[in-house]
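Lecture 7, part 2: worked example. A protein chain together with P-hydroxybenzoic acid.
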Amino acid sequence: MSAVQHSTRVGIIGGGPAGLMLSHLLSCAGIENLVVEARDRDTIHHTHRAGILEAGSVAMLRDTGVDGRIDTLGDEHSGIDLRFGGESHLLDFRERVDATVTLYAQNEVFLDLSLARERDGGEVYYEATVSELFDVTSARPGFAFTDKEGARHEVRADLIVGADGSRSFTRRWIPEAERTNYTMEYPFAWFGILTEAPKSSPELIYARSDRGFALISQRSETVQRMYFQCSPETSAEDWSEERIWDELQARVAGPDGLELKTGPIFDKTVLPFRSFVRAPLRHGNLFLAGDAGHTVPPTGAKGLNLAFADVKVLFEAIDSWNGAGSRALLDAYSDTALKRVWKAQHFSYWMTSMLHTRADATPFEHARTLGELESVVSSEHGKRYLAEAYTGWPHA
Ligand code: PHB
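Predicted complex, written out as structure tokens:
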């Protein structure tokens, strides 16, 4: 059986938020593109990920006519509660860096983008498995995929973009001799829950306790998202609702008597994580964006924001090459994107190590970390750095 042939300008492998956002921006600029995604829409829409969008990410959705529900469902936050030693420290972002973030779940961002692509006639193949890439250093690279009916397709494009997430298949096409992997493993994971309960506090609570980290996040007035640090070997089934609430409550307990508002738990997941960067983010006419090129631990919620920042830089490079014929921005893409990636890697690593506890930590290390937290909340400069990094550095 012969393959269905496609010819386009930009072939995008991965139809999560990064791939779809790039496709949307390219189509708005009149640049033909095609997206293939391995999963089905429903699976992606029901995969719970982080929920904090930097102002720059919100603007990318709003200003480009994605026309989503962010204005009605998104919840603007102008600070976080940094809690340790059983005491809360409210850190106001607006006051320090005149910026806010918006709580809007990543799976809703995906839904908005996928509906916008459908509305605008975008060419997106879900449940499509890419089997190989061809000629990525040539002027006409390509890839082959099998669609959900089992038919084989071959795509030829000017550029290929790998936006296929943390288990990226595409990134293998950067030859071993030309790539460097930077990896940092952590001896813990997050236990995440969704619960039908009212908010426990106006702002998100990032809590360090001797029992480990806990994050009290939100989804709406009636649904809340919470996490607590656990061992990567933890099995979600071993945890009853009662045990989960006891553990979460113990991690935020303090003399102020903070009490979490509880309710039925309808989703439990253990989320392992690591810090990872593959450099460069380019080989010939293959470009990596988002989790395919780098992943961060979830503390600080930089993953999707970083993916959108890559997409913005990459889109502007493609647009400039398309319009002015210059490849200068494409040539600079990897270096430009990696500057922000490493700042976010530092911030995510810092938040993670400062707020989590390690079983093998010495008494010195425990006490030093409390000193570190104290030096943030007692210093205008410390608070300002955290506020600046959390709300996101301006897009280039
Ligand atoms: C979430 O609501 O899922 C969330 C919020 C903040 C984080 C991580 C996850 O730092």
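The CA atoms of residues 257 and 385 lie 29 Å apart. The longest strand covers residues 180-196. Keep this in mind for problem set question 3.
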